[in-house]
Amino acid sequence: MTDVYTLWGTSGSLYTAKVRAYLRKHRIPFVERAAGEPIFREEVVPKTGRWIMPVLVAPDGAVLQDGTDIIDALEARGLGRFPTLPETPAARAAAHVFELFGGEGLLRPAMHYRWNFDADNLAFIKNDFCAGLAPGASLEDAEAVFAFASERMRKAARSFGVTEDSALHVETSYHEFLALLDTHLADRPYLVGGLPSVGDYALFGPLFAHLGRDPHPAALMKRVAPRVYRWTERMNAPEDSTPEHPASEGMFADDIPETLRALLRFVAEDHLPELRAHIAFANAWLAERPELVAGTNGLPKPGARAIGAAAFTWRGVEIETAVMPYRFWLLQRLQDFADGSAPDCASAVESLLADTGLSEMLTLRTARRVERRDCLEVWGPPR
C-alpha cells in the first residue's frame, strides 16, 4: 500500500469532489480521510498554512492542496491515464473557461440551494457535516461543531452574493444553466467530447457535492436536467465507457458546437460582471500598496483568501462579493495558454471568445500576477 495517496476532505465539499473524481477516473489508488480528524489539524494544516480542503498527501509525503494544483501535480507525475486538456486550441480554451467558472461561477447556486432549503436539506447536511468535521464525536459535541460550521457557511453564502434580494435571480440563472448544459449533453458525454476535461472536473464539484447530493437541488436536477444528473454519475465512476455516446468515447472533439457556444455565452452574461468588478477592485487595492513584497498576499493573515469585497450589478440587482486572488490565478491559465500559442492557435481562441462575448477574459488582468507558493495564493512582482 506504499503507492496509495491520502485525500483529506469531506463528502459534501465541492472542491474535494473535484479531486475525488479525478482520482477515480484515472484509477489512482487513494484512501479518503475526514478533515475533522485531529491528525489533519495537527499534522497537515501546519504544512498548508490554513485549514482548507482538499489536501492530497502523496506516498512520498508531498502535501498538495487545491484541486487544480493537485491535478497538475498528478499529471506531472505521469499518473493521468488520458489527457485532461484538448489539443485543439478552441476546445482547450473552452475547457479553461469552465475550469474557472465551474468552481467559482457556480458558488451562488451551490450555496443558495444548500443553505436556504432547510426543510428538505438540513438533516442530510447535518449528518454530512458531523461525519466529516467531527468523526467519532459525542452527539453534543457534533451538534456544536455543526452549529459553528453552518453559521460560518451561511455567512460565506452571503459573501458570494446570496441574499434575499438576489435569491430569485440565483434560481433563474441556475435553471438557465441547467437547461443549456442538459441540451449540450444530449450529443456528447462530456463538455468537449468523449473525455472529461479540466472544465468537467471543475463543474462537477458544485454540480455533484452541493447540487447533485443535497436533497432539494438533487430532486430539482433529476426533474429538469436528467442528462446533467447522469453526467454526475458518469463523472463519479471509474469506468471509461459512455454507453449513451459510443461514437465519441475516448477522445476529445475538435468542433465547438452551438450548444457549447451557448454555454460560453451564458458564462459571459453571468460571470463577466463579477470578474470585471473583482479585477478593478484588485488593481485599486494593489495601487494602494506599491511596497507590497512579492511572494506575499499583503494581508495580516497569510492564510486569508479574500482581499476585500466588490459591489456590482448582476442580473439587475446590486450584490457584493468577496474578492479572492485565487480566481485570478485560474483566469491566468486561459490567458497564459493564449499568450503562449502560435498565431493561428491564438487566432482560433480569440475568435471563439469574441463569438461568445468572452473576449475580455484575455484582457482583464491584475497589475501583478497571482502565484501559488506553499499552498497559498501570493502576488508576484509588478508586471
Can you put this structure into words, describing what you see?
- With 383 residues, the chain is α+β, with helices and mostly antiparallel strands.
- The chain is 54% helix and 11% strand.
- The protein is built from 14 helices and eight strands.
- β3 and β4 (63-65) form a beta hairpin.
- α4 (89-105) runs antiparallel to α13 (325-339) and α4 (89-105) crosses α14 (343-355).
- It starts with a strand and ends with a strand.
How many helices? The count is 14
**Assembly form of the protein:** single chain
User: How confident is the prediction overall: mean pLDDT?
Assistant: 96
Which regions are unreliable across 5 or more consecutive residues at pLDDT < 50? none
Shape assignment = globular
What is the H/E string?
Answer: EHEHEEHHHHHHHHHHEEHHEE
Which structural class is indicated by helix and strand composition? alpha+beta
Total number of β-strand segments?
8
Helix content: 40-55%
Largest sheet: 4 strands, mixed
Beta content? 5-15%
Largest sheet strand order: 2-1-3-4
Task: Give the N-terminus to C-terminus distance in angstroms.
Answer: 46 Å
Calculate Rg over CA atoms: 20 Å
What secondary-structure arrangement, pairings included, does this model have?
Layout: E1 5-9, H1 14-25, E2 30-34, H2 38-48, E3 55-57, E4 63-65, H3 67-76, H4 89-105, H5 107-115, H6 118-133, H7 139-159, H8 167-184, H9 198-210, H10 215-224, H11 226-235, H12 258-287, E5 308-314, E6 317-323, H13 325-339, H14 343-355, E7 368-373, E8 376-382
Parallel strand pairs: 1-2
Antiparallel strand pairs: 1-3, 3-4, 5-6, 7-8
Helix pairs in contact: 1-3, 1-9, 4-9, 4-12, 4-13, 4-14, 5-7, 6-7, 8-12, 9-11, 10-11
